[in-house]
Hints:
- It is a single chain.
- With 253 residues, the chain is α/β, with parallel strands linked by helices.
- It has a single domain (3-252), classed as Rossmann fold.
- The protein contains 10 helices and 8 strands.
- The chain has helices spanning 15-28, 45-48, 57-65, 74-85, 107-121, 135-140, 157-168, 193-204, 218-225, 238-252; strands at 3-9, 34-38, 87-88, 92-96, 126-130, 146-153, 177-187, 208-215.
- An 8-stranded mixed sheet has the order 3-4-2-5-1-6-7-8, with helices on both faces.
- Strand 3 and strand 4 (92-96) form a beta hairpin.
- Helix 1 crosses helix 10.
- The chain starts with a strand and ends with a helix.
- Magnesium ion is lined by residues 15-16, 40, 44, 130.
- Adenosine-5'-triphosphate binds next to helix 1, strand 7 and helix 9.
Amino acid sequence: MTKVIAMAGKGGTGKTTTSALLTRYLLEKKETPLLLVDADSNANLNELLDLEVGLTLGQIRKELKSELPPNITRDQFMEMKIHQALIEESGFDLLVMGQPDGPGCYCAANQYLAMTMDKLAENYKYIIVDNEAGMEHLSRMNLRSIDYLLVTSDPSARGILTAKRISDITEPLGLEVKKQYLLVNRAPQPVPPALQEKIDEAVADSGMELGGIIPSSEALINQELNGESYLGLDDSADVVQTVNAMFDKIFAE
Ligand SMILES: Nc1ncnc2c1ncn2[C@@H]1O[C@H](COP(=O)(O)OP(=O)(O)OP(=O)(O)O)[C@@H](O)[C@H]1O
Ligand SMILES: [Mg+2]
């Protein structure tokens, strides 16, 4: 059975970073094949993996609106295009959603994404969905269910509260989430007691378990500045060891 792992969290808290580090982890564990979905309209997961984006689902949607080649059904056309849009790498494929239709409406793109994901899903062991900030976006994606929701937060009281709010609205939004974890990113080491208290409170009052506390990492900053793939990060980097131990714990269950 394919497992869906989705990211959530306020802007800039580490959703894309976590997606890339999780990809690295699952590849190393040979938990493959993986499908990575970049559902951020300002796609940038590819950059952390040093990949070029070609065709996006948004562009396919535009093509669907114009006249199709003769002797091909909409479904066949769609399938052909999706295969063109898949960036195929060793152990994983990346699919980029791209730009939404017009102001406000993601509807069509998301229907296609849902259709595509349904068809594609069975081919993969895990699907990793990197989202943009905001839960409405996630709910519009029509993911039938999310096995693991990873909610990232910055190491601040308000950040943790926002993560809790995100977790709290999954149910009213109609998202079926099996397990959810709080990931506190760029945390000072050691974690200040006041921050630890906020984390403990948020975990006690929500459906989230504490996934882990991720340190601020120079290795990540340098890798990004040099335009090198996060997949090439060294195992010895603190941040890699921390997130790998965290993923071991999360995915052991
Ligand atoms: N643990 C960390 N140590 C150092 N830098 C980090 C860490 N986590 C994230 N960053 C940096 O912080 C910035 C934001 O991270 P990232 O892009 O992963 O956040 P995001 O939640 O995906 O943002 P957005 O909401 O814009 O999609 C990036 O420049 C990233 O390199
Ligand atoms: Mg991002």
